[in-house]
Design brief:
The structure holds two protein chains of two kinds.
Chain A (H helix, E strand, L loop, with lengths): L2 E10 L6 E9 L4 E6 L7 H13 L7 H11 L6 H22 L3 H4 L7 E7 L5 H13 L4 E4 L11 H19 L4 E5 L7 H11 L7 E2 L7 H10 L4 E3 L5 H10 L5 E2 L8 H14 L3 E2 L7 H13 L6 E3 L4 H5 L11 E3 L12 H6 L22
Parallel strand pairs in A: 4-5, 4-11, 5-6, 6-7, 7-8, 8-9, 9-10
Antiparallel strand pairs in A: 1-2, 2-3, 4-12
Helix pairs in contact in A: 1-3, 2-3, 3-10, 5-6, 6-7, 7-8, 8-9, 9-10
Chain B lengths: L2 E10 L4 E9 L4 E6 L5 H15 L7 H12 L5 H22 L3 H4 L7 E7 L5 H13 L4 E4 L11 H19 L4 E5 L7 H11 L7 E2 L7 H10 L4 E3 L5 H10 L5 E2 L8 H14 L3 E2 L7 H13 L6 E3 L21 E3 L12 H6 L21
Parallel strand pairs in B: 4-5, 4-11, 5-6, 6-7, 7-8, 8-9, 9-10
Antiparallel strand pairs in B: 1-2, 2-3, 4-12
The chains are: A alpha/beta, B alpha/beta.
């Protein structure tokens, strides 16, 4: 079997401003594979990267996944960075999909088989006010989720005095606990927006009253040594890793002692091949993975194959999908009573609805917007 | 599909023994594996018999689940007996999965990364000249990489200064005969305890342009290897004595190794070796699988090597010329120093039951090493 074409499909989801960026790898035997690219913002960079890798991969055997990965990664010479790795991540998913289909097996079986019967999910909840957040928590616990994640701080926290923001954070968590009780796991994602490590400790100390599950990416990800220093003082589990690329950066984080729960992102870290290697490294350090997943239904399915076959798996992030995302694939996999079912094969067991991409073409890059401090200096998003 | 039975075989290969297994299924597909022959082999066979009921009735495709379940129920850290038994079963399960899918095992492990698998050939000889002759003869056969002991077999009885002189002569004689081009490695075989002695030996033999020095420190204490590697100007290879991802990670995180040498028959099998290789890759470390036992080990080494990007070279003892080759049905012979990749489904190697029945196990142990004063040495 040979790769004949790799195409990149981009569609703007006007409800969120994000672009859906999918990849489809075709072969001379008619089998094709699908994958999802992380929407990093300047999303028209992705088709160029896909095309760049396509030139190297045409004529190659799609089932030689390790080799094809190295062909792309090592061929780029310089560290690839977000757009290129996002493209490689999607291509890698397409190759596992093709291999599974060719062998008539679900991808997780190629990973050593399922180690669990169902896959625990956690749901991202939102709310500008404590009451709104609590309401979202209540709705999703009623649906069966036993684990949730929220922003610890209110949306306008950068404009607030720090002690007021801390008081608000406490109110938010208090309201959630009031709504769902003490037995639901509630993690918090500070989203790499807090610059000073000491502020993270102050925030976490406030949250400890209500027993957080974990604090996620509480400081910036560039300095892995500081993440390690921070973790020494963290009173709860520290989750991070979504912004790190490849096994090399995740290993560096681990060796700095900077993580309890790894959250690699399948659509940017290097695909399923790299996710597995990261899971192996985590296993050897007695750490668990909880794959980051703010992406579409295709990425969710890719993650579920990894989750199904990984012993040191904790929980799978999931969120409410948009209409555009739902219409972009043949079907979506939803959690029932807080657990996702095992994905079905062969391959990844999901397909792209290409009409959607013709009907709603690419319109514009995704801008995350500007975040500024009260003095108009630039803050982190 | 369900596992119905695990058969265990113990066969003499003319010099020592090989432990093979076959995992049978209700659909008639059988997987073949091999366990490390640790010496007290009956303990491994007994362990496999004990473990059989944990696997019977289960789906053989759930390899991670089955192996982890077996490890976890044993609770205490597995030693060489447990790891050897687990490794044999893992290999047999992947053989089954490959046969079910109709592809060689390396396809299931990420696909082939290379078209052929390079081997280094062990060279033997009592004297430096015999070693050189053996190497020259193997060069004629197409081999281009070799490994030997840097010291003679009676070194423990000799004064250390004399050992260093003899080591220098051995390496010089070999290099004079074969030139600088062929890759040449040496194996200290964890027999030197003192790092100061290992450093002295390395200093003497490093000028002979070595591919690596293997196991120059004892394996129990990883810090010894780490200390050696700080000053070594030659690649440090080690790992055949380590089991599972945790010990290899300890070695790698200690910055104690350039080339890891997991043995597929006791490191945990294909899946554990894949994990170990991935961890090594993230440390910029390559993999040269240890491979002194039966031919199933060679098959496992070839499939593993074919499926990882950071493979270096595979150990090989010319087993195609030895009696152990009779114990399997297929004939795997390297060509020009490389194994071709197998194309048959599974591992592509099966047991010759008639030959196994005709070669009962030998009474074999490693013997006992001692120094000139009679105190025990390391083997």
């Amino acid at each position: 079997m040979k790769i004949t074409e790799i195409k990149c499909l981009v569609s703007t989801d006007e409800s969120s401003g994000h672009n859906l960026v999918y990849v489809k790898t075709l072969t001379d035997e008619g089998i094709y594979g699908v994958g999802e690219v992380y929407h990093v913002g300047p999303d028209m960079a992705s088709p160029y990267w896909v095309q760049y890798f396509e030139e190297q991969l045409i004529g190659q055997n799609p089932m030689e996944i390790e080799r094809n990965w190295a062909l792309c990664y090592q061929g780029a010479r310089f560290p690839i960075g977000s757009s290129g790795l996002a493209a490689l991540s999607a291509i890698d998913q397409t190759l596992w999909d093709i291999t599974g289909k060719a062998l008539d097996k679900p991808v997780y079986e190629l990973f050593g088989g399922e180690v669990r019967d169902k896959i625990r999910g956690y749901f991202d909840i939102h709310g500008d006010t404590p009451d709104q957040l609590a309401e979202d928590a209540r709705i999703n616990v009623a649906k069966g989720f036993t684990a949730l994640k929220a922003s610890p701080l209110p949306p306008q926290w950068r404009d607030m005095r720090w002690n007021d923001a801390l008081a608000d954070a406490r109110e938010r968590f208090k309201a959630v606990r009031g709504a769902v009780g003490d037995y639901i796991d509630v993690g918090f994602d500070a989203h790499a927006a807090i610059f000073e490590p000491i502020r993270v400790l102050e925030l976490t100390d406030v949250m400890m009253e209500f027993d957080p599950w974990f604090m996620e990416e509480p400081i910036r990800m560039e300095n892995r040594h500081e993440m390690g220093e921070l973790r020494k003082k963290m009173p709860c589990a520290l989750a991070t890793g979504e912004c790190l690329y490849t096994k090399f950066e995740l290993l560096e984080l681990i060796r700095e002692g900077g993580v309890d729960i790894l959250q690699p992102e399948v659509c940017i870290v290097g695909g399923l091949t790299e996710m597995r290697k990261i899971a192996f490294i985590a296993e050897a350090h007695d750490l668990v993975i909880a794959p980051h997943n703010p992406m579409g239904p295709l990425a969710t399915v890719s993650n579920l194959h990894l989750d199904a076959s990984t012993s040191n798996f904790l929980a799978q992030e999931s969120r409410k999908l948009t209409t555009a995302e739902i219409s972009s694939v043949t079907h979506i996999t939803e959690a029932v009573d807080g657990y996702f079912p095992l994905p079905e094969g062969p391959g990844l067991g999901i397909d792209i609805v290409e009409e959607r991409f013709k009907e709603f073409p690419y319109k514009s890059p995704f801008h995350r917007g500007d975040r500024v401090n009260p003095d108009n200096s630039i803050a982190y998003i | 599909m369900e596992i119905t039975k695990i058969n265990t075989y113990h066969a003499g290969d003319g010099r020592r023994n090989n432990i093979f297994i076959e995992v049978e299924t209700d659909e008639g597909i059988t997987g073949t594996g091999e366990a490390y022959s640790i010496g007290p082999d009956k303990s491994v066979i007994s362990m496999l018999e004990e473990m059989e009921s944990w696997f019977v009735g289960q789906d053989p495709s759930r390899i991670e689940w089955l192996i982890r379940r077996a490890k976890n129920t044993m609770r205490f850290p597995l030693g060489q007996v447990g790891w050897s038994a687990i490794s044999a079963i893992d290999i047999a399960l992947w053989d089954i999965s490959g046969k079910v899918a109709g592809v060689p095992v390396y396809v299931l492990l990420g696909g082939k990364t290379r078209d052929k698998v390079r081997v280094y050939h062990a060279i033997y000889g009592d004297s430096p000249h015999r070693l050189a002759e053996n190497a020259l003869q193997l060069i004629e056969e197409g081999y281009s990489a070799f490994k030997t002991s840097p010291v003679p077999s009676n070194w423990r009885k000799l004064p250390w200064r004399e050992v260093l002189h003899v080591a220098d002569e051995r390496m010089r004689t070999i290099r004079d005969a074969i030139g600088d081009s062929p890759d040449l490695a040496v194996d200290v075989h964890v027999a030197i305890r003192e790092t100061s002695q290992a450093l002295e030996l390395a200093k003497v033999i490093t000028p002979y342009k070595l591919m690596f020095i293997e196991e120059p420190a004892r394996a129990e204490f990883i810090e010894s290897s780490a200390e050696l590697r700080k000053t070594f100007r030659v690649a440090l290879a080690t790992g055949e004595n380590l089991y599972g991802v945790h010990r290899f990670t300890e070695l790698l995180n200690a910055d104690a190794v350039d080339i890891i040498q997991p043995d597929l028959l006791c490191c945990g099998g294909f899946l554990e070796a894949k994990k170990i290789a991935a961890i090594a890759e993230a440390h910029y470390v390559t993999v040269a699988p240890h491979n002194p036992l039966g031919l199933i080990s060679t098959a496992a080494g070839v499939h593993h090597a074919a499926s990882i990007n950071n493979f270096a070279i595979l150990e090989w003892h010319g087993d195609d010329k030895k009696r152990k080759s009779e114990l399997i049905n297929e004939s795997w012979v390297p060509k020009d120093g490389y194994f071709e990749l197998p194309t048959d489904p599974g591992i592509g190697m099966t047991l010759n039951h008639d030959a196994i029945n005709a070669n009962p196990p030998l009474n074999w142990d490693r013997g006992f090493a001692s120094y000139s004063d009679g105190s025990p040495g390391f083997l």
